[in-house]
Sequence to fold (305 residues):
Amino acid sequence: MTKANLNWVVLGPGAIGGLIASALLEHGQSVSVLPRESGPREINWQVTHKQFKADYSAQVITQPLAGNTVFVIAVKAFDVIQALLRITTLHGFNKTMPIVISHNGMVELPELLKELNLHPLVTTHGAVKSQSENGNFCIEHRGAGRSWLEVGPQGRNQPTDFAPGLVLQQAFPPLTLEQDLSERRWLKFVINCIINPLTAVHECANGELLKENWQTQVYSLVAEAVAVAKSHNVSLTTEECYKEVLLVAKETALNHSSMLQDIQQQRRTEIQQLTGYLINAGKTAGVATPTHQQLFNEFQQRYNG
Ligand SMILES: NC(=O)c1ccc[n+]([C@@H]2O[C@H](COP(=O)([O-])OP(=O)(O)OC[C@H]3O[C@@H](n4cnc5c(N)ncnc54)[C@H](OP(=O)(O)O)[C@@H]3O)[C@@H](O)[C@H]2O)c1
Fold:
């Protein structure tokens, strides 16, 4: 598989998927999209980065899929299984097709889906999708970040042996190719399990969590989450994660977390795939998570699930 003949199929596309699709188009790649519902044969969208605006369009996928298809799935965690199942039903799909998959939270996949050629992507970019008056949609790229892509066994010798990774590295920089992203995914998961539900329950900006009166709770949340990570053979330390939580809170001090934004816009949240997953993983491994349980209960009481 070479750079020139990849056919990218982006699901949605949503905020992160749309950002990646635009970057691939800018890089001269062939990109088509798989929307949730059938409709027009072409999808148009605009991306704004500070003062700069650009318009993009891509064809809706046609089937059968080309043999050199690479999928990009950036969906909310509660949509991951349906999204994966959906692509397995596409005419021409085969299990060796690479699937770049990006979501917050953790999802336990059925055995059937674990066999797919999945390549997790972690990103710190910030983007918001909205509908424009003409029915097209707009992606506001609010925060430039960086990304990491798991190349897996295909990049065992050289990460750059994994052609889609090489293309993404050039089209969507800065992006680091790593053989195994487990530790990085867990670190991001731990950070999200703290900043998202806390700011949602207390309806505050991320920077609020830097105040002294929060520190006992934040530290306990970190320590419990790290104990669960360790039970999954992920070697994070409480001190390192605590520092990272404070760093993210500082760097995004004025922002509202994605979970608080979801609450404010009456959208479904990823609480089950964050705190819910952590509590269950703790139960299975015999690791107590009372501070997360209390936060989860407060969340449920306030927002009714
Ligand atoms: N946005 C950010 O700044 C950011 C940053 C880092 C991580 N993340 C994480 O990345 C993930 C994606 O976030 P996002 O903000 O990009 O979400 P988003 O804007 O909601 O985008 C998801 C897109 O996927 C579509 N979709 C879901 N299931 C589908 C299916 N079966 N077939 C076709 N399309 C489907 C959605 O359609 P509908 O609109 O119809 O639901 C939506 O267009 C989340 O886990 C989020 O927490 C987001």
